[in-house]
């Protein structure tokens, strides 16, 4: 499982139109860039336990609302959302992480501030979306040339795309479990089915509100900060979220089907055991009756009581009764 950062680390880059990238922007220069409204500033905060530096940057340099800063630094995982604060948007999206060998799934939070000419990202765990978009920017791709809205799109797009390989991995595991359920419906298989079902539910709890967030961008609700040219890209992300949601629903249905198959297999095994016990009881019931009657020991009232072969005769009668019952059960196709 990925460990959270223990120390805060702030990286920044500034792209001026027609100019190259400037890394390690000083806080006072950040203030000037935000006030001028030109170029594109991207500040990334790996939020560790020493939160004083990051909080000071968010509150004093950018002037973000204290409620958003508290959301960034609390230890709870907030659901995906987008809040409009006039001059900037505060966005929460989820990144998904999956440890396939141990079948452990968890999500981490990525916070974004999107202003007119800046994007501030903050995360307590390593974020693959931030690493991927930073790599693209360092390779001089267009990700830093189309404004803050397009940069926000790139970050959210990678976060959503990371859901798909996890869902595909879960789908493969569910298919393998379904085959094991039919062959060997043991308790460890049940635990694996329940674990996969629980992971699918966790994914769905993350992707559904994230889909709503992307849909609000795709409808153009924040057009003054996210330009018209970026809307089509957010619609593409929305299509991805819908597809991932459908895949998750399919995995959950498969897990439910595997669970039902397991319960049916266990019930069938119980029924087989009960049927076997019932047949044994049905066979021994008349034999017990015969033995009980002969155990009364009344002379001259039981057939062959004083005969030398009386015991053998009783055993023969009991064997005939047992054989007759077995034949009748097979004739009725009960065994």
Computed over alpha carbons, the radius of gyration is 35 Å
What is the N-to-C order of secondary-structure elements (H for helix, E for strand)?
A: EEHEHHEEEEHHHHHH
Poorly predicted regions: none
Average pLDDT metric: 84
* Euclidean distance between termini CA atoms: 52 Å
Tally of individual helices = 9
Structure description:
- This protein has 2 domains: 9-265, Beta Polymerase, domain 2; 273-331, no CATH class.
- The chain has 9 helices and 7 strands; from the N terminus they run ββαβααββββαααααα.
- It has helices at residues 27-36, 52-61, 66-73, 128-138, 148-161, 163-183, 187-218, 228-294, 310-331; strands spanning 9-15, 21-23, 40-46, 81-84, 89-99, 104-114, 118-123.
- A 7-stranded mixed β-sheet has the order 2-1-3-7-6-5-4, with helices on both faces.
- A hairpin with a 5-residue loop joins strand 1 and strand 2.
- Helix 6 runs parallel beside helix 8 (228-294), helix 7 (187-218) runs antiparallel to helix 8 (228-294) and helix 8 (228-294) packs antiparallel against helix 9 (310-331).
- The protein starts with 8 loop residues before the first strand and ends with a helix.
Features:
335 residues; alpha+beta; Beta Polymerase, domain 2; 2 domains; seven-stranded mixed sheet; 7 strands; 58% helix
Précis, in short:
The chain has a 7-stranded mixed sheet, sandwiched between helices.
How are the SSEs ordered, and which strands pair?
Elements: E1 9-15, E2 21-23, H1 27-36, E3 40-46, H2 52-61, H3 66-73, E4 81-84, E5 89-99, E6 104-114, E7 118-123, H4 128-138, H5 148-161, H6 163-183, H7 187-218, H8 228-294, H9 310-331
Parallel strand pairs: 3-7
Antiparallel strand pairs: 1-2, 1-3, 4-5, 5-6, 6-7
Helix pairs in contact: 4-5, 5-8, 6-7, 6-8, 7-8, 8-9
């Amino acid at each position: 499982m990925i460990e959270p950062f223990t120390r805060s680390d702030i990286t920044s880059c500034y792209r001026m139109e027609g100019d190259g990238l400037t890394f390690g922007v000083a806080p006072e220069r950040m203030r000037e860039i935000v006030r001028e409204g030109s170029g594109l500033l991207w500040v990334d905060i790996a939020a560790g336990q020493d939160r004083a530096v990051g909080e000071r940057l968010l509150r004093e340099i950018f002037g973000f609302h204290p409620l958003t800063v508290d959301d960034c630094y609390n230890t709870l995982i907030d659901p995906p959302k987008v809040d409009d604060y006039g001059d900037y948007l505060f966005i929460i999206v989820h990144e998904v992480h999956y440890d396939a060998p141990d079948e452990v799934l968890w999500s981490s939070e990525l916070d974004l501030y999107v202003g007119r000419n800046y994007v501030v990202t903050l995360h307590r765990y390593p974020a693959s979306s931030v690493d991927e978009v930073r790599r693209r920017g360092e390779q001089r791709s267009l990700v830093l040339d189309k404004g803050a809205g397009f940069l926000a799109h790139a970050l959210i797009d990678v976060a959503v795309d990371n859901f798909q390989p996890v869902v595909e991995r879960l789908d493969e595991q569910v298919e393998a479990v379904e085959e094991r359920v039919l062959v060997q419906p043991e308790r460890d298989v049940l635990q694996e089915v329940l674990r996969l079902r629980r992971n699918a539910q966790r994914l769905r709890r993350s992707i559904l509100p994230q889909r709503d967030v992307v849909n609000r961008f795709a409808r153009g609700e924040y057009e003054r900060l996210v330009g018209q040219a970026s809307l089509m890209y957010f619609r593409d992300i929305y299509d991805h979220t819908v597809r991932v949601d459908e895949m998750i629903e399919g995995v959950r249905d498969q897990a439910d089907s595997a669970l039902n198959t397991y319960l049916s297999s266990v019930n069938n095994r119980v029924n087989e055991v009960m049927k076997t016990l019932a047949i044994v009881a049905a066979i021994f019931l008349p034999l017990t009756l015969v033995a009980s009657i002969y155990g009364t020991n009344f002379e001259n009232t039981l057939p062959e009581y004083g005969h030398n072969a009386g015991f053998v005769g009783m055993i023969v009668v009991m064997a005939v009764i047992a054989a007759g019952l077995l034949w009748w059960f097979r004739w009725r196709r009960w065994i």
